[in-house]
Automatic annotation (TrEMBL):
Subcellular location: Cell membrane
Any single GO BP term: transmembrane transport
Protein name (record): Carbohydrate ABC transporter membrane protein 1 (CUT1 family)
Organism for this UniProt entry: Haloactinopolyspora alba
Entry superkingdom: Bacteria
Family (UniProt): Belongs to the binding-protein-dependent transport system permease family.
Length: 320
């Protein structure tokens, strides 16, 4: 027996409601899992199985032609440690991440501050304009910018016309500029989604806080530095970590824009894995799988940091 408190405060005595066991609920609601079955089968076949299989292939010497490979233990991982092209791709990915994430986060924040102001005209138009590249396929963006950044394209033509350079520059096909061109295009493409994140974060700041800062005589910069920015710190952690993970998944854009060239100057880890597995004269699926495993571990490490950062940010936001 238990006492249940009603809304009007009058206690009602009666038997405690019985909770169904988990197994009983699954048996009674079997039809729900029937609807989930196609998704579970597809997820298992195209996500779980390749993930597990790649860990097994990483320990095989397997070109992909034979039915099975030869077990070589950690030999593939030893080769990777001495592979200059792997480390070149690794550091290219790190450079891509270190430059692109602050650019994307910082530019999006600056735009969000402008578009969040009540006096800014055509705010809806500019928000849509900046978000349009997000819904465009990365491969299509890469192909289009290959033409725009060509030596005969409009970007090089404008630089020559303005006198900033004497000769045309093929930004996506020169070793000194190919990786940085990819960074610029990637930031442009995904700037809109980070802008939406920042606009949502700015909406959480109460209007009376800004009004109090104005009454105290704080200018725009002092208000941002001492009022807005401290309240955005938890969101800064979350947005930065989300963009960091995204910066490691740039295969479609970089493959169509530069294909890792010239001379591997813009080859990131994803392109290294693809080239090793499918682009080589003799495919090395086992070796490529070992590289994919290391890349996956790096991504998992960042994901763990992301989870810890989000948890900290939620506690910080809840206590504010």
């Amino acid at each position: 027996m238990t006492t249940i408190q009603q809304r009007d405060g009058a206690p009602v005595t009666g038997p405690r409601p019985r909770r169904r066991s988990r197994l009983r609920r699954m048996r009674d609601d079997w039809w729900i899992y029937l609807f989930l079955l196609p998704t579970l089968v597809g997820y298992g076949a195209y996500t779980i199985y390749p993930l597990v299989a790649s860990w097994w292939y990483a320990f095989l010497d397997w070109p992909g032609f034979a039915a099975t490979g030869t077990f070589v233990g950690i030999e593939n991982f030893d080769r990777l440690m001495d592979d200059e092209l792997f480390w070149n791709a690794f550091w290219n990915s790190i450079v891509f991440l270190v430059i692109s994430v602050p650019l994307r986060v910082g530019l999006a924040l600056a735009l969000a501050l402008v578009l969040n102001r009540k006096k800014t005209p055509f705010k809806g138009f500019f928000r849509t304009l900046f978000f349009l590249p997000v819904v465009t396929t990365g491969a299509i963006v890469g192909i289009v910018f290959t033409l725009l950044l060509d030596a005969s394209g409009p970007v090089s033509g404008a630089l020559v016309w303005s006198g900033l350079t004497d000769t045309p520059v093929n930004f996506a096909a020169e070793a000194e500029t190919s990786l940085y061109s990819g960074i610029a295009v990637w930031v442009w493409k995904w700037l809109g989604i980070t802008l939406i994140y920042w606009l949502a974060a700015l909406q959480t700041i109460p209007a009376d806080v800004h009004e109090a800062a104005m009454i105290d005589g704080a200018g725009a910069w002092r208000e941002f530095r001492h009022v807005t920015l401290p309240m955005l710190v938890p969101f800064l952690v979350i947005i930065t970590l989300i963009d960091t993970v995204a910066a490691l998944n740039v295969f479609d854009l970089m493959q169509t824009l530069t294909a890792g060239g010239p001379s591997f100057s813009s080859e990131v880890i994803e392109i290294f894995i693809f080239r090793t597995a499918f682009g080589a004269t003799v495919p090395q699926l086992g070796y490529a799988s070992a590289a994919a495993v290391l890349f996956g571990l790096l991504t998992m490490l960042i994901a763990v940091v992301q989870a810890v950062g989000i948890r900290w940010a939620r506690r910080r936001t809840g206590s504010a």
